[in-house]
Design goal:
The complex is a heterodimer. By secondary structure, chain A is α+β, with helices and mostly antiparallel strands. Helices cover about 50% and strands about 20% of the residues of chain A. Chain B is of the alpha+beta class. Classes of the chains: A alpha+beta, B alpha+beta.
Chain lengths: ~290, ~350
C-alpha cells in the first residue's frame, strides 16, 4: 500500500513542479491560468490529504509491528516489557475507531439520513427512512451529483411526491438540510397514511373502502349504522400532504339529520384528531358503527 | 339481438381462451346462479357461445353489457398487444387534487366534444388504476366496438398507458387527457412493451432499486454456490463489485419484463479503414435493437458476469433510469427523441 501511495504522490509532485515551472513562463490567457491555478490548488489539497493518510498508515504500521514483536517475544518466553505507551496508544486508536463506527451505525439504525460518498467523491447517496407509530416502513434513496452543482441523478421516490417542486422551494443548492427535512416530512406523512389505510383494511373488515388513491390523500369509507343499518359515506380529505391526519371529514347519508347529530359530530372530531384506524375502533366501541 | 351485437359477443367469446371463460364470467358477475349452473365449461366454444347468446336474450342485455364483459376480461389479462407510455407535463396548481369523479366527468365531456359519436367506459380498478375503454365513431359511422382503445391512468401520477390507438385518434385522446387531468401538455414517454404491469412498474419505480450504502447490503449475503474454492478467493471482490454495479444500474430481485430496447443512431460514420463511408456528409443512419424475453434481467446478467463492462454504460442504464426503451442518438450525444414514434395504424 505504501508503494502505491508513493507512486501517486510522485505523480502529484511532478504535476506540482510542472505547474510551478509554468508560472515562471508568460501566461497565455487569463481564464486558462485561473483554471490551472484552481486545479493546482485542488491537487495540492489532495496531496496534503494523501500525505496525512500515509503518515497515519505508517504510524499504525509501526505500532502494529512493535506490538506483534512484543507479543511473539512474550510467547517465546522472554520477559514481557512493561506497559508501553505505544501499545496503549494503538489500542486507544482502535477503540476510538470502533466507537465511531458504532456511532455511525446507531445513527443509521435510528433513521438518520445516511450519506455515502460514491464515484470517488463525485456523488453522494442519501437514504430517507420512514416510520409510523414506532414501526420502520419504506426507505427512500437519493443519489446526488455533487459537481458542478447539486443535482439529483437517481432516486426511488414515487412520482406522486412533487420532488422537483420541493427541490425548487427549499433551494436545495444552498440549504440541503431544509430540503431533506421537507422531503422527509412528505415521505413520512405518505408512509403514515398508507400504513393507516392498510390497517383499516386489515382490522376493520366491516368498513368498506370505496375510494383511495396512490398518494393516499383521499379516503372514502362506507359505514353501516347498527340497528337501522343505514349506510353512511365518509370522505376524508388529506389536503395537507405533510400530515397523517385529515384536514376535512364529511359524512353523507340518506338520513339527512345524521351528519349533524351530536354522536356524529363527536365522530367527526374523532376522525380529525386521531389516526383513522384507531378512530374506527373507538367508533365501533361506542356503538356508532358496525 | 341485432346482428352487430351478435357478432360482437361471438368475437368476444372466441377471443377469451376456454380456461379463462369461467373466471371472467364469475368476475363479471352478471349471470344468475341458475344460469351459471347451466353453463357446462367442458363443452366446445361454439356451444358455450350459443348458450351465452340465449342468456343474453333472456336477461335483456345490451351492447353495454358486452363491452363491460370485454373490459373485465382485458383488465385481468391486459398483456395483449403493445402498450405505449405517455407522460403528462406541466401540471396546473390543482392537478394534484384531481379526484376520480372530477376526472371521469371531465374526460367524458371533453372527449365527446371532440369526437362524436364515441362510446366511453371508465372503471376504477382496485389498485387505484383508472381504466378507460373508448370505441371511436365519426360523422358517418357508429362507434366501432371491434377496435377499442384502452387507456390506463393512475391519478396524481403523470403517466398514462395506451393500447390500440391510431395516429388519427392520438391528438383527440391527448387533448381530452390533458384537460381532464389539469396539465398543459402530454408527450410520448418513449417506453413500450407487451406487459402493462412491466412498463408501469418501471415508470412508477415499483421494483427493488439498489443504492450505494456504507452498511452491509443484502447483496453481499447472497453468495452463489462455490464450485472451486481457489478460484472463488481470487475473484470474489471483483465479482461482488460487478454485481453491486449491475444491481445499482438495473435493480435487484425480479425486474419489470421489457421485451426490447431500440437505439436509432444518426451519427457520422467513423471507421478510418472505410474511406467511402467516412467521407459521406450525411450521418449514418442505423437502428440497433436489443430483444429478449426479459431484457433488463439479461442486461443485468451481462454486467454482473463481466460480458458488459462495468460501470454500466449510460446507454444501457438509461433504460431503467429514464424509464424509456427508445433512444435517438445523434452526434451531440443521446438526447430526447426529436421525432415521435409511429403509433400503430
Amino acid at each position: 500500500r505504501l508503494l502505491v501511495s508513493a507512486g501517486v504522490l510522485g505523480h502529484l509532485s511532478r504535476l506540482e513542479v510542472q505547474v510551478r515551472s509554468r508560472k515562471s513562463r508568460p501566461q497565455p490567457q487569463g481564464s486558462r491560468v485561473a483554471e490551472l491555478k484552481a486545479n493546482a490548488e485542488a491537487l495540492r489539497t489532495q496531496a496534503e490529504q494523501l500525505r496525512a493518510e500515509m503518515e497515519t498508515h505508517k504510524n499504525l504500521q509501526k505500532l502494529r509491528t512493535s506490538m506483534d514483536r512484543r507479543r511473539t517475544r512474550e510467547e517465546d518466553g522472554e520477559e514481557g516489557m512493561d506497559e508501553d505507551s505505544e501499545d496503549s496508544e494503538l489500542l486507544r486508536l482502535m477503540a476510538r475507531h470502533t466507537q465511531l463506527n458504532d456511532l455511525l451505525y446507531a445513527h443509521h439504525i435510528i433513521g438518520g439520513y445516511n450519506a455515502t460518498k460514491t464515484r470517488q467523491g463525485k456523488g453522494l447517496c442519501l437514504s430517507l427512512p420512514t416510520a409510523y407509530d414506532g414501526v420502520f416502513l419504506e426507505t427512500y434513496n437519493l443519489e446526488i451529483d455533487v459537481k458542478p452543482a447539486l443535482r439529483i441523478a437517481r432516486h426511488n421516490i414515487p412520482p406522486f411526491i412533487p420532488l422537483s417542486s420541493l427541490v425548487e422551494q427549499s433551494s436545495m443548492q444552498t440549504d440541503i438540510r431544509t430540503f431533506l427535512d421537507t422531503l422527509s416530512q412528505h415521505l413520512n406523512a405518505f408512509s403514515g397514511r398508507k400504513q393507516q389505510l392498510k390497517l383499516v383494511k386489515e382490522l376493520h373488515k366491516s368498513v368498506e373502502v370505496m375510494e383511495s388513491n396512490a398518494l393516499c390523500s383521499i379516503l372514502v369509507l362506507m359505514f353501516t349504522v347498527p340497528k337501522e343499518k343505514t349506510a353512511v359515506l365518509c370522505t376524508l380529505d388529506y389536503t395537507d400532504h405533510t400530515r397523517c391526519l385529515p384536514t376535512r371529514v364529511q359524512f353523507d347519508s340518506e338520513d339527512e339529520a345524521l351528519a349533524d347529530s351530536p354522536d356524529w359530530n363527536k365522530n367527526r372530531s374523532l376522525l380529525t384528531e386521531t389516526p383513522v384506524h384507531k378512530a374506527l375502533l373507538a367508533m365501533r366501541k361506542m356503538g356508532n358503527i358496525v | 339481438m341485432d346482428d352487430s351485437m351478435k357478432r360482437l359477443l361471438q368475437r368476444l367469446i372466441r377471443r377469451i381462451p376456454a380456461q379463462m371463460l369461467k373466471t371472467t364470467l364469475d368476475k363479471w358477475g352478471r349471470l344468475t346462479a341458475a344460469q351459471k349452473r347451466s353453463m357446462d365449461f367442458t363443452e366446445p366454444k361454439w356451444a358455450l357461445t350459443e348458450k351465452l347468446m340465449a342468456i343474453y336474450e333472456e336477461n335483456g342485455w345490451t351492447g353495454k353489457h358486452i363491452t363491460e364483459l370485454e373490459m373485465t376480461y382485458i383488465i385481468d389479462n391486459p398483456n395483449q398487444g403493445m402498450w405505449y407510455a405517455f407522460q403528462l407535463m406541466d401540471p396546473e396548481d390543482d392537478a394534484h387534487s384531481v379526484e376520480l369523479t372530477h376526472f371521469k366527468e371531465h374526460f367524458k365531456s371533453h372527449l365527446s366534444e371532440l369526437v362524436r359519436p364515441v362510446s366511453i367506459k371508465i372503471k376504477k380498478h382496485t389498485d387505484e388504476a383508472v381504466w378507460i375503454r373508448i370505441a371511436w365513431g365519426d360523422s358517418f359511422s357508429r362507434p366501432n366496438h371491434l377496435k377499442p382503445t384502452y387507456v390506463v391512468h393512475h391519478l396524481q401520477t403523470p403517466y398514462v398507458f395506451v393500447t390500440s390507438l391510431t395516429s388519427k385518434q392520438k391528438p383527440l385522446l391527448s387533448q381530452a387527457l390533458v384537460l381532464s387531468t389539469r396539465h398543459q401538455a402530454i408527450k410520448d414517454a418513449n417506453l413500450s412493451g407487451r406487459k402493462l404491469g412491466a412498463i408501469r412498474d418501471l415508470l412508477m419505480r415499483q421494483y427493488q432499486q439498489v443504492f450505494p450504502t456504507n452498511y452491509p447490503s443484502p447483496l453481499a449475503e447472497r453468495n452463489e454456490t462455490v464450485s472451486n474454492p481457489q478460484i472463488e478467493k481470487e475473484q470474489v471482490k471483483c465479482a461482488e463489485n460487478r454485481l453491486q454495479m449491475a444491481c445499482e444500474a438495473f435493480g435487484d430481485g425480479v425486474l419489470p419484463q421489457l421485451q426490447s430496447s431500440v437505439y436509432k443512431l444518426e451519427t457520422k460514420f467513423k471507421d478510418h479503414s472505410n474511406k467511402t463511408m467516412t467521407e459521406r456528409e450525411q450521418p449514418f443512419r442505423c437502428v440497433v435493437k436489443f430483444a429478449s424475453t426479459n431484457l433488463l434481467e439479461s442486461l443485468r446478467h451481462c454486467a454482473s458476469s463481466g460480458i458488459a463492462s462495468t460501470p454500466v454504460t449510460p446507454l444501457l442504464s438509461s433504460i431503467p433510469l429514464k424509464g424509456r426503451n427508445y433512444f435517438v442518438i445523434t452526434d451531440n450525444g443521446p438526447g430526447p427523441s426529436s421525432q415521435t414514434r409511429q403509433t400503430q395504424n
